[in-house]
Amino acid sequence: MRNAYTPLKFFVTLLLSNFEPYAIVIGVSILLAATFASCAQIEDPCKTKSRIVADDKYCDKYWECENGQSVQYDCPNGLVFAGKHRGVTEGCDYPWRSNYCEYPKVQINPPIGSEHCDWLYGIFGHETSCTRYWTCWNGTATEQLCIGALCNDDPNGNVPLGKSCNRYWQCQGGYPRLQRCPAMLVFDRRSLRVNSTRDQTESTRSRTAPDNNLEIKSPPSRTF
């Protein structure tokens, strides 16, 4: 608000130079009015239906009404305010998907990086591949495959999701959709099907167990 205060201060200084009482009163009144108008830009969350509002300067901060008082909160590192019950967590979302992070608003909190993650939360490019990327959740990076080529082999098949055993890609007409296995079921990377944990265990055992039906031949006897 530096630009807004500069002409007001100049105007008040000009009035004060005349040493007229009425000029002093007018100048101070104008300055106070501008100050209150500046503070009023942040909407009181306690007077809104959602009880939560965006900060007026910073994308990654917001205000929430608690016990009749306005309390300021920070979004998780790398995310910005998106609105109550919106975004990926805590009412916050990726910057490019939020309607509350347009210029001149900025992210004030510095990035907290980890391996493969510029911020604790976000989606970031792969260091060596142009068909893979990293999704970061609280600093934990998960390698992902760009979905454009997932369904090339089978437009209606299933594709493993990284090392996950309970999520996978299901191709529907060439377009991949992320699926989660129901409770007590896992995704079998060999059959590309969802099986019970018991079937998965038995399948693994059958692949590793020795064949007891094999005929064991004794070595030929030697005569001296």
From TrEMBL:
One of its GO terms (cellular component) is extracellular region. It holds the Pfam family CBM_14. Keywords: Chitin-binding, Disulfide bond, Glycoprotein, Repeat, Signal. The keyword Ion transport does not apply. It comes from the Eukaryota. Residues 196-224 are annotated as: Disordered. The keyword Repeat applies. GO terms for molecular function: chitin binding. InterPro entries: Chitin-bd_dom, Chitin-bd_dom_sf, Chitin_bind-dev_reg. Residues 43-103, 148-205 form the Chitin-binding type-2 domain. This is Chitin-binding type-2 domain-containing protein. It comes from Spodoptera littoralis (Egyptian cotton leafworm).
